[in-house]
TrEMBL record:
<feature type="transmembrane region" description="Helical">
    <location>
        <begin position="12"/>
        <end position="33"/>
    </location>
</feature>
<keyword id="KW-0472">Membrane</keyword>
<keyword id="KW-0812">Transmembrane</keyword>
<keyword id="KW-1133">Transmembrane helix</keyword>
<feature type="transmembrane region" description="Helical">
    <location>
        <begin position="98"/>
        <end position="115"/>
    </location>
</feature>
<feature type="transmembrane region" description="Helical">
    <location>
        <begin position="282"/>
        <end position="300"/>
    </location>
</feature>
<feature type="transmembrane region" description="Helical">
    <location>
        <begin position="174"/>
        <end position="193"/>
    </location>
</feature>
<protein>
    <submittedName>
        <fullName>Uncharacterized protein</fullName>
    </submittedName>
</protein>
<feature type="transmembrane region" description="Helical">
    <location>
        <begin position="306"/>
        <end position="331"/>
    </location>
</feature>
<feature type="transmembrane region" description="Helical">
    <location>
        <begin position="199"/>
        <end position="220"/>
    </location>
</feature>
């Protein structure tokens, strides 16, 4: 089937991205943060984390109900206290089903931007994908993801297929190693470490991934044929593991539609933990939903677009969004390899 042209339809694709994701980006904060106000989570965080004068001495200028100041700047400590409190509520005394679901299914949300950022010729916001997650840690992934996809589509020369380069084997090694070192290990420490420090550390995992990436670039030896060998075989293993983990995470959902419980009015007697769980669910609805919608821009023609839409709807219901995105990422990289091979055949 004929590929989508790169002129007028490319402009249409970008215009649609602006309209669709811009609208979602404008609406998402209202639903995500609106749930926090409706359930009184914001009031709880205000009570727990708004600093009050400490009469004990001149050196300690402020204190919280339970959180020990970490930074030394009142406003920064208040924000950090709120973030840590939110996660502690769904981590203690044991991780909530929604938190475990996020832990087991989140890998594609991090891997897809990392892989797209590794493509040759990618521009600023594309090759700095960790900016997405750095902002997401502050504003939530649901509120941030729409703007990432706008940046990805507008700055990558998108024309239905995007840059036509599969990432190299060495780049794939950097992605895999930095994701494990900077992303997975801190997340595991937060889930099972039962520590405020571990929770704080995970908030900076985008920075940790970036640092790990620089270290991996310096440590992983270069090979003469690096530029000629694609990273698909390694990424296939990585995405397969992400797929298996996401399927495992589905059991914590118990029911594929359970997340729609957030559409029901909150009880007046809801606990802070339950309120945080609702807040997290709204975040996941927009986060996963935007990524699944964004993956439709990977289509190179009308047939692939129909398949991707159907795959997201049917696969999302039966397998869950994490598993769907893992296989979509695998398919995406495979198409890049095929396009690279096609270009090589034309040049010979």
């Amino acid at each position: 089937m004929r590929s989508i042209p790169t002129d007028s339809r490319a402009l249409l694709y970008k215009t649609l991205a602006l309209v669709v994701f811009g609208t979602i980006g404008a609406l998402a904060p209202g639903y995500i943060y609106g749930s926090a106000h409706e359930t009184d989570l914001m009031r709880y965080l205000h009570k727990a984390c708004v600093a009050t004068p400490d009469p004990a001495g001149e050196e300690v200028l402020y204190r919280f109900d339970w959180f020990t100041r970490k930074i030394g700047v009142e406003e920064a400590d208040q924000r950090l206290c709120a973030v840590v409190t939110v996660f502690q509520l769904v981590l203690l005394p044991s991780p909530s089903p929604t938190m475990m679901y996020f832990f087991l299914t989140h890998a594609p949300l991090v891997l897809l931007p990392m892989v797209e950022g590794m493509r040759r010729g990618a521009r600023f916001l594309v090759w700095a994908p960790m900016l997405l997650w750095f902002l997401a840690q502050v504003l939530t992934i649901g509120a941030t993801a729409p703007w990432y996809w706008i940046a990805l589509i507008l700055t990558s020369g998108w024309s239905g297929s995007g840059p036509k380069q599969a990432i190299t084997r060495r780049d794939a090694q950097v992605v895999a190693a930095s994701f494990v070192l900077g992303g997975i290990i801190p997340f595991v420490a937060m889930i099972y470490g039962d520590s405020v420090l571990a929770t704080i550390l995970w908030q900076f995992f985008p920075v940790l991934i970036s640092i790990a990436g620089y270290i991996c670039v310096a440590v992983i030896p270069k090979q003469k044929d690096d530029s000629k060998r694609n990273g698909y075989p390694l990424l296939k293993k990585v995405y397969t593991l992400a797929f298996i983990a996401a399927l495992t995470g589905q059991k914590y959902a118990r029911n594929p539609l359970q997340i729609l419980d957030i559409l029901q009015p909150a009880s007046l007697t809801i606990s802070a933990r339950e309120a945080t769980d609702i807040f997290l669910k709204w975040d996941l609805v927009f986060g996963y939903g935007v990524f699944m919608l964004g993956s439709c821009w990977f289509a190179r023609n009308a047939k692939e677009l129909v398949i991707l839409v159907g795959w997201n709807v049917v696969g999302g219901f039966f397998l869950g969004p994490g598993a769907v995105l893992a296989l979509t990422g695998l398919w995406r990289e495979r198409t890049m390899v095929e396009m690279d091979d096609g270009e090589k055949e034309k040049s010979t």
